[in-house]
Amino acid sequence: MNTELSAPGPSATAVEKGFCPVYRAIGVLQEKWVLHIVRALLDGEKGFNELARAVGGCNSATLTQRLEHLETLKIIDKRTEDTHGKLARSVYTLTPVGRELQSVIDAIDTWGRAHLQEGHPGVVSAQGC
Amino acid sequence: MNTELSAPGPSATAVEKGFCPVYRAIGVLQEKWVLHIVRALLDGEKGFNELARAVGGCNSATLTQRLEHLETLKIIDKRTEDTHGKLARSVYTLTPVGRELQSVIDAIDTWGRAHLQEGHPGVVSAQGC
DNA sequence: TACACCGCTTGACATTTTAAACCGGTGGGC
DNA sequence: GCCCACCGGTTTAAAATGTCAAGCGGTGTA
């Protein structure tokens, strides 16, 4: 309430800020796991479980939900690979739009490496990073 | 909790991915409102309520919590301004580390402007962007 | 036949975010 | 002096969101 500018409006939240692409972009990217998913996919297309593993800890329910959302936003593409016979493998890829998030991930990566180094002893800097 | 930075526990989730700063950075930046807060502060230091308004919709409880977290991460600084007489105003600023998130915000900004232009049903545009 | 993997879905549960009211204090108008 | 708006928050309970574990139909490998 104290965060309102002036709007006595019912819907509140993001609206009174006025719509802007940056605001929305942040809204999308801050959803839990989204950046992890994008990062994993920048590394190449992946199947569902494969993606879950690459992302590192997201459970299937959440992952399904995120993937649906990202698909409607046209950030990723879901393709059902009709392999031999009946088994259909789902493959997730970034769309061109999604691939452009590379710059965002890079920026985060750079920042993280520069400022978040305080690692724990015993944790060897693995790759896959 | 699994994205916790300080987790000393060798157990659980994120670990099998192997520790890496990017992973951790994503963990920090994806917390709700964090990017909004950083963006607002990149625009100049702000008081508590002022920040809440700039961020656009975050409630005070969450904001308090986020600010504390960001402070322990040394991304922001809290200063208590001893204004004329008695009234103490709290002012939040980005540290140099926090200021370097400018590149991340810029990347998101660029991406958002390029790909998120189409309106969203029900969201009326205003200003402040 | 048995067992491990695939891509999910379900339903119960835990955590996080939220609105709203409230606290003590300041400052200004009347 | 009284009223009321603003400051920086805290507290509550309820809603939203995320998670866990189990399980489904199906395949492929041994």
From TrEMBL, chains A, B:
<dbReference type="InterPro" id="IPR036388">
    <property type="entry name" value="WH-like_DNA-bd_sf"/>
</dbReference>
<keyword id="KW-0238">DNA-binding</keyword>
<keyword id="KW-0804">Transcription</keyword>
<keyword id="KW-0805">Transcription regulation</keyword>
<dbReference type="InterPro" id="IPR002577">
    <property type="entry name" value="HTH_HxlR"/>
</dbReference>
<protein>
    <submittedName>
        <fullName>Transcriptional regulator, HxlR family</fullName>
    </submittedName>
</protein>
<dbReference type="InterPro" id="IPR036390">
    <property type="entry name" value="WH_DNA-bd_sf"/>
</dbReference>
<dbReference type="Pfam" id="PF01638">
    <property type="entry name" value="HxlR"/>
</dbReference>
<feature type="domain" description="HTH hxlR-type">
    <location>
        <begin position="20"/>
        <end position="120"/>
    </location>
</feature>
<dbReference type="GO" id="GO:0003677">
    <property type="term" value="F:DNA binding"/>
</dbReference>
